[in-house]
Design goal:
heterodimer; A: 365 residues; two-stranded antiparallel ribbon; B: 519 residues; Rossmann fold; 6-stranded mixed sheet
């Protein structure tokens, strides 16, 4: 077990710093490509580097604050931000984040602060939420992709949307930019869930964006833009909360920025040049591999909590396997996206217009 | 030839009014139901499409293709019916929106008293009062969403109609008589120029339909425009394989002169009074189009006084070099077209230049002001950017600036894409000297911040952990006495530092990507 500075921060050398930058870059690419998330790669990635789960989440949500600020600024220029919708979710998302911070802090402090099991309870809790939520997201995303490829349908979440649409839950609020009318109660509940997930695993977007699309009926581009706008507030609130508890490592946040802000723009460029079905399949598979990576680390945390009898020397194998799977998922996904980005960038310079001259067309009758 | 489109709600009485009107004017009458039947026979799953558009959910690529197919089919079907008769009364939801840019269509919205509608629903569907009210509310809501999703406009906006008739206090006969009288006004008689716009729409719709019907091309998301027999098909880079089949699929279309296939990821709309291919703005627009892989569509906004008949008309197509190989396409408007090509404010020349570099998205002339312009813009077209150059030049410099600003705000409220003036284009979207200086300053500040944080790593970590020197320094202060004191200071510092770092470094990255034209 690595000795932690002030009981929570890892020692940073050049090699570790580069790994954090790479994590940020891959997370940024995936985040730009998928439209939300990225933390699903960065949070466990930092945990694999020895960063306690709560510090990984705290540093990541702080990083999300600035990243979402830059992203929503860009989306705002294109008219993709429904500020009213995002602000309606802010209050309950803050409650969700606060709830998550309290649970995380309690679990971190439960084991007294030092020793092998000091971070295990919090790590296990974060890993379990991560596995549960992201498995559901990945599976529904893959089902959606296969279904839409076969018949152009909307996927399983339509059932939820139709069910909620049938309920009469006044008061209703009109959101002009998104052009939807939604029950305030549904908006508040979705805000709470988004905030809780953002606070627990740093990936509120995986609930926020699908909620806006499937439940509220918001167009995809507006959902992504509005969620980023909301994420800016959630990131700010998360940063305040985790920093208050002393769980933000500013060095990690700044190193993540070095990679992520570049990656997020490249990923967003990739979305324009890859087919929609392909985007969902690639995303679903990457998330599933990340889930698997986290699942491999679970026995290690169980042993550290003395809930499982296992040779402590095996920890390094579990951690290594977890790290290997995560990097395999991230790097292969990133390479695939970068391949399409570079191909499109070069193609744009090469191909101009195909002028099909009239000689090929016989005179119209 | 006259076109009257009646937009009606469920049980609003619009159907009876349309049929009465058609009978009185001896015009053909077409209902939305007939259109839907024909679309269904064509194989378009209209019901499923409608559900997908009005209910929440992800709109898949396949549904987007079916929506384009439906839209092209509806336009072509409507145009077929129009050309078959002296006049047509269409009643449905949004017939006039299928004929974007065609002026002199009489657009009527019919409303009825809600109470009366509820009673009709109760009677016809056997529902109780509450259920009937709920039914009407849901149907109206679905229709509003359908119209907005299909055409990007509000169904209820009275500005989209020439006349709104409330049948609550007007009987059918009187309402019909009122419409017959309005229909006689010269404002609603089809002119040769409007007929030409209609023919272009018809050709574009038939071309899109042909592409949707052919198994070699039906899978590609393409946009089709037609200018005087020249069809421009725009396709996405990922659908590049479709290009080789486009001429073969379109070759048998009547009145076709030439087919152009342009690969573009998006469209830019450039509005100006007089175009000059050597101007600075042309260079800027072209640079942006190259960077975004966009086709540039031009609209020449000319003063109303220059109009031959106060009309929206189409310009000569760029590089129509092959026209001589085809039979003369007149459409009954040769004189007007030759007038336009003689003085088109540099439109044709600019389109030719754009076509040479593969960026032409077509062009046209609009005479008048804001309302004529918005009527001519296809709001279902997903433009990425609208650029307003010099317009209203005759008004003097100060007035020109003010009117241009007004126009930008007017279009910004109605078009989903950002609308910028020529000055804003350079500063927002292109890399200039100002960007170099700005990026340099931000880079310097970023390096300084990172240097400071990683040089003073340990004291910073002590501060963040609320331990070490920080706890020591605050030991006897009120901060340490209050449980929350130390944490609050840390929170505030993190809250301030984080967005500053993101803003400085993010601006450097954005400038770098702007420089290599990867946005």
């Amino acid at each position: 077990m690595v000795e932690l500075l002030f009981g929570r921060f890892i020692e940073l050398n050049l090699f570790v710093a580069i790994q954090v930058i790479v994590l940020g870059f891959i997370g940024g690419i995936l985040s730009g490509f998928i439209g939300s998330g990225g933390a699903f790669f960065m949070t466990p990635g930092m945990m694999n580097l020895g960063v306690p789960g709560v510090v990984a989440v705290g540093s990541n949500i702080t990083h999300k604050f600035g990243k979402a600020m830059m992203g929503s600024r860009k989306h705002g220029e294109y008219g993709n931000v429904d500020k009213r919708l995002a602000l309606s979710m802010v209050a309950t998302s803050f409650i969700g984040i606060r709830l998550a911070v309290m649970i995380n802090s309690a679990l971190f402090g439960e084991s007294g602060g030092h020793g092998e099991g000091d971070t295990a309870a919090s790590n296990l809790y974060i890993s379990m939420v991560f596995i549960l939520i992201l498995s559901l997201v990945a599976i529904s995303m893959l089902r959606d992709a296969l279904k839409s490829d076969e018949e152009g349908g909307g996927g399983p979440s339509m059932k939820i949307a139709n069910f909620i649409a049938k309920l009469n839950l006044p008061p209703y609020v009109n959101f002009k930019v998104a052009n939807v009318r939604v029950s305030l109660w549904v908006v508040l509940i979705c805000g709470l869930a988004t905030g809780y997930l953002a606070g627990t695993i740093g990936v509120g977007g995986f609930i926020g964006v699908p909620s806006m699309i499937y439940i509220f009926g918001v167009p995809t581009a507006v959902a992504a833009g509005s969620e980023l706008y909301l994420a800016m507030f959630m990131g700010a609130w998360g940063a305040l909360n985790y920093a208050f508890e002393g769980f933000v490592d500013l060095r990690l946040t700044m190193l993540l920025y070095l990679g992520s802000l570049l990656g997020v723009y490249l990923g967003a460029y990739g979305v324009k040049v890859v087919k929609e079905v392909m985007i969902r399949v690639v995303t679903g598979l990457i998330i599933l591999l990340c889930v698997l990576s986290r699942a491999v680390a679970v026995p290690m945390y169980l042993r550290q909590l003395e809930w499982l009898s296992m040779n402590p020397d095996w920890d390094k194998y579990f951690n290594g396997a977890s790290k290997g799977l995560l990097f395999f998922a991230g790097i292969s996904g990133t390479l695939l996206i970068l391949y399409h980005v570079i191909k499109a960038y070069r193609q744009r310079r090469r191909i101009r217009t195909t002028l099909i001259e009239a000689e090929t067309i016989p005179e119209a009758a | 030839m006259q076109i009257i489109c009646i937009s009606r709600g469920t049980f609003s009485g619009g159907k009876d009014l349309a049929e009465n009107l058609a009978e009185r004017l001896d015009y053909a009458c077409l209902s939305r139901e007939e259109l839907i039947d024909s679309a269904t026979k064509e194989g378009i799953p209209v019901g499923k499409l409608e559900m997908a558009m009005v209910r929440p959910g992800v709109f898949s690529q396949r549904l987007a293709l079916e929506r384009d197919h439906y839209s092209a089919f509806s336009t072509a079907f409507l145009c077929d019916k129009i050309t078959e008769s002296d006049g047509l009364v269409y009643h449905g939801r949004t017939g006039h929106l299928l004929l974007a840019g065609v002026r002199h269509v009489l657009r009527v919205r019919v409303l009825a008293d809600e109470e009366q509608r509820i009673r009709t629903v109760m009677q016809n569907l056997g529902l109780d009062r509450d259920k009937a009210r709920k039914y009407l509310r849901e149907v109206d809501e679905d229709r509003k969403r359908w119209v907005y999703s299909m055409y990007g406009v509000s169904w209820e906006d009275a500005a989209n109609y020439d006349l709104v008739l409330n049948l609550a206090f007007m009987n059918l006969e009187n309402a019909t008589s009122a419409l017959v009288n309005v229909a006689q006004l010269p404002d609603f008689q089809m002119t040769p120029a409007a007929r030409k716009v209609l023919e272009d729409l018809h050709l574009a719709a038939r071309a899109r339909l042909a592409l949707a019907r052919d198994e070699r091309t039906h899978w590609a998301g393409v946009k089709v425009r037609a200018d005087k027999g020249v069809v421009t098909v725009t396709y996405l880079p990922q659908d590049a394989k479709v290009a080789e089949f486009i001429p073969a699929v379109c070759r048998n279309l009547p009145d076709l002169k030439e087919v152009r296939a342009t690969m573009a990821m998006t469209n830019l709309l450039w509005i100006q009074e007089e175009f000059r291919p050597n101007s600075g703005l042309y260079e800027q627009v072209l640079e942006l189009a190259t960077k975004w892989n966009a086709a540039v569509e031009l609209i020449r906004l000319a003063p109303e006084g220059e109009s031959p008949q106060g009309e929206t008309t189409m310009a000569e197509p760029a590089q129509a070099t092959a026209a001589k190989n085809f039979r003369e396409y007149n459409g009954g408007i040769e004189d007007e077209s030759s007038d336009l090509s003689a003085d088109d404010g540099g439109l044709k020349q600019t389109l030719d230049e754009l076509a040479k570099v593969g960026k032409s998205g077509g062009g046209r002339v609009v005479y008048g002001g804001q309302s004529q312009l918005i009527n001519a813009i296809d709001r279902s077209m997903p433009y990425t950017l609208v650029v307003i150059g010099e317009v209203f030049k005759s008004k003097g410099h100060a007035a020109m600036l003010r009117i241009t600003r007004d126009l930008r705000n007017f279009l910004g409220d109605r078009i989903k894409a950002p609308v910028v003036t020529a000055d804003e284009l350079g500063s927002h979207y292109l890399f200039g000297k100002r960007d170099i200086i700005q990026a340099g300053v931000f880079l310097g500040l970023t390096v300084l911040l990172y240097f400071l944080v990683f040089t003073y790593e340990e004291p910073i970590l002590a501060f963040l952990a609320q331990a070490g020197w920080y706890a020591e320094a605050c030991r006897d202060t009120f901060l340490a006495k209050a449980d929350w004191g130390l944490g609050v200071i840390v929170s505030i510092v993190v809250f301030i530092i984080t967005p500053i770092v993101a803003y400085f470094y993010g601006s450097v990255i954005m400038a770098a990507l702007k420089l290599i034209k990867m946005e």
